[in-house]
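Q: Entry one of two.
A:
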Amino acid sequence: MADKPKIIAFAGSTRTGSYNKLLVKIAVEGAREAGADVTYIDLRDYPMPIYDGDLEEKEGLPANARKLKDIFLQNQGLLIASPENNGSMTAVFKNTIDWLSRPVKGYPPLECFVNKYAILMGASIGYWGAIRVLIQLRPMLSHIKVTVLPEQVNIPMAESAFENDGSLKDKKHHAATKGLGKKLTEFLKMINS
């Protein structure tokens, strides 16, 4: 790693008006202010077929999975915002992780997740504010060698939580979300000093 910590930020949603895209962008702001080089990606720009072992054997890794692997390899930090679908992670999020976790000849297993550090956040229109999915993401990410830091933010009633400019109406929530980006940046600076 050079001088600046490198972080990739994304939401587990492809919806245009996604509350989680808004949320992760607040954390991105905090990370950039703290001195990180942040790459924001939209999973909508990387469509992939549903993971299928037969398809993988026949055609190999989809081109967009390879592109995402390369982006992940260039970054050490992950800012992840996840919505909650039926009390769990979205299909697009799980499918992305499934494809990225597949081995590529000449590289060690899980090469784009090893030595990565993540901070999680989530927003949902329900009362629980995506807390159930955040609880599920921790062991899944740990299983694929990502270290998940303990700090997180979850925003309930997301349909009324954001201002028109994308900021959170609750200034404490806004500051806490921005603080997630700062925390990850400072942590990466510390472990790489």
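Q: Entry two of two.
A:
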Amino acid sequence: MGASWNEICNDCGKKFRASNGGGFVFHLLHCDNCGGEKKISFMDIGEIHLKYIKGLDKPYCIATAGYDQYIQDTYLGDPIAKDDYYRLVEEFAGKCECGGNYTFNARHRCPNCKSTNYEPTGDLLLYD
């Protein structure tokens, strides 16, 4: 499940909206240099995602449980582990315009000064 909330930068005072986590059918990665976001749908990832689902011992999430079970029962490809999946998704995401890499672990940053020194100001929204 993903979340979105308001932040205020402690370095420059900019107020902004931050998001973290993907959803039922997509991942949200951040650039490790500028903090920019990139959404990647499972459909776009294609076979990489199928291999990951094949290797799970349960559904990825309740919302896709039926489809996940279908993949686990019928997909003929070899399964992959979570670490391999994350690496392949990050490779698929490619480079950010700034030259950084989109990763699952990169933090969002202030859109004004690129700082990671911020604090939440409330208004939490959970999605997917």
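A: Comment on entry two: The radius of gyration is 17 Å. The helical segments are 42-45, 47-55, 65-74, 82-93.
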